[in-house]
Inverse folding.
């Protein structure tokens, strides 16, 4: 993952124009951001509405009242700037392990995107300062715990807002921990003096959970294709059949994800000598973990696509409360509720956990002499003296068991807060945090399947794999030795995992002619 600052990428923050790739580029590649003139003009227009209300004696939530259960408290004009500072300071109440840099950068970009819609009522200076902090590589320190996923990701966003006013802790572009005021000064950024409504606008959004959703979808899209490749190699290494992946058979159940996964598996296995049936062959069907891989993988693909639809809608949203409407009204609303995002975060965790579960079952088949069709027990060089991949499967099993626990939905676990004013919350932040662990776990399970399948295919020599899968094995052999006596296995698993994450195994398959989507 490249976290070095770069001048080669540029993301323009404009109304409703942010893409998945923009989020990834800013979060992971430190792309520079700038706010469009159209957005700055829209912000100035809506700010004039807030300025017109600042001295109004009538209550306006977030402008002249307290927050949450304290919304009935009218705040005197002379205390309204203090109200915004106090909001940020009190809501920056996170705790626990430090949240990853890429998540915080995604969160900040998405909050900036909402500010740029002109619906939040903040001054253009607020957005320009936010963009300057992002471009300087300054990352506020945010604890993992604090958000209930309703009224926005309040605590995480508050820690980011705290940095904008020169308070709290941050890490600079080199990852050095320091006070926010020092980091701003070093970057030549003046701390913000918050005006009416601006503190609330900085913290009232689903940006943290949405940022993690976009990153997870990006990773899962690559991982599901890698899982298709792994399944194909397992079919090949276990002397299965690719006949069940025929396009006309898949068309009888026209789910688009199933179609794509089956096509990937066909294309990976095309022309493989290992799939030829010798005389007297009697096995007519493969086990479900092989035969039904397109159905399960395809369902994961369709779930990812559904989640992407929800995320795309959220990227085009202006999430704040209250908002300034196009006709100049300031209105309270419930758009900050994270339910739409929380549900798909949980849905993805369920689907991804099941993907890993099937991968582990294919690995286990390689190790059992009653099911691996002629290979040594546990793929050991000398079974008994050597244990082969016995414990690699244990590692998979431990991860899969953990993923099943993480698949339990967070979004059904609402808990009331703010003296029952906020009596139903989404827990979307928690759903996003556990999904990140799920994605990491699945990538490790798939890596072990690939490692095991490659070893099995080598052990079938002089039989050789197909061109596409053979290229994948060859790529693995550049850093991982082939079958032999037992050796330190953890580094090999780590190297296989690195090749899953960096996409080099998919690149090898595609370079060899594999048309993988």
């Amino acid at each position: 993952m490249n976290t070095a600052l770069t001048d080669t990428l540029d993301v323009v923050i404009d109304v409703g124009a942010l893409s998945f790739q923009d989020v990834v580029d800013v979060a992971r590649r430190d792309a520079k951001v700038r706010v469009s003139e159209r957005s700055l003009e829209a912000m100035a227009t809506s700010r004039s509405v807030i300025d017109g209300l600042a001295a109004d004696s009538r209550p306006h939530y977030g402008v002249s009242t307290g927050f949450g259960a304290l919304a009935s408290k009218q705040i005197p004009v002379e205390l309204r700037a203090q109200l915004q500072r106090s909001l940020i300071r009190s809501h920056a109440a996170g705790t626990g392990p430090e949240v990853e840099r890429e998540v915080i950068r995604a969160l900040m970009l998405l909050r900036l995107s909402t500010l740029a819609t002109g619906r939040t009522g903040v001054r253009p200076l607020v957005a320009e300062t936010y963009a300057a902090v992002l471009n300087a590589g300054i990352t506020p320190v945010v604890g993992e715990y604090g958000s209930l996923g309703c009224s926005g990701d309040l605590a995480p966003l508050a820690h980011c807002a705290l940095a904008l006013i020169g308070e709290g802790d941050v890490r600079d572009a080199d990852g050095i921990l320091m006070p926010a005021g020092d980091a701003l000064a070093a970057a030549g950024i003046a701390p913000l003096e918050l005006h009416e409504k601006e503190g609330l606008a900085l913290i009232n959004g689903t940006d943290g959970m949405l940022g993690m959703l976009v990153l997870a979808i990006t990773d899962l899209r690559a991982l599901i294709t890698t899982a298709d490749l792994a399944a194909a190699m397992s079919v090949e290494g276990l002397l299965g059949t690719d006949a069940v992946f025929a396009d006309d058979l898949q068309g009888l159940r026209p789910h688009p994800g199933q179609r794509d996964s089956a096509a990937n598996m066909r294309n990976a296995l095309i022309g493989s000598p290992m799939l030829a049936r010798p005389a007297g062959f009697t096995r007519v069907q493969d086990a479900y973990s092989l035969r039904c891989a397109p159905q399960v993988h395809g369902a994961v693909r369709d779930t990812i696509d559904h989640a992407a639809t929800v995320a795309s809608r959220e990227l085009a949203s202006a999430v704040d409360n209250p908002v300034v409407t196009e006709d100049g009204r300031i209105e309270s609303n419930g758009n900050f509720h994270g339910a739409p995002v929380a549900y798909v975060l949980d849905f993805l965790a369920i689907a991804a956990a099941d993907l890993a579960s099937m991968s582990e079952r294919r690995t286990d088949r390689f190790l059992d002499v009653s099911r691996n069709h002629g290979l040594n027990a546990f793929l050991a060089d000398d079974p008994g003296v050597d244990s082969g991949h016995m414990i690699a499967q244990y590692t998979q099993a431990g991860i899969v068991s953990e993923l099943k626990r993480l698949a339990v939905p967070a979004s059904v676990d609402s808990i009331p807060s703010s003296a029952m004013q906020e009596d139903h919350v989404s827990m979307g932040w928690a759903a996003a945090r556990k999904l990140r662990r799920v994605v990491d776990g699945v990538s490790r399970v798939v890596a072990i399947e690939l490692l095991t399948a490659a070893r099995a295919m080598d052990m079938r020599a002089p039989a050789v794999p197909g061109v596409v899968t053979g290229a994948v094995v060859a790529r693995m052999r550049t850093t991982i030795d082939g079958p032999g006596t037992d050796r330190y296995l953890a580094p090999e698993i780590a190297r296989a995992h690195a090749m899953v994450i960096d996409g080099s195994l998919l690149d090898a398959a595609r370079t060899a002619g594999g048309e993988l989507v």
Observations:
- Residues 122 and 198 are 5 Å apart (CA to CA).
- The first helix runs from residue 20 to 29.
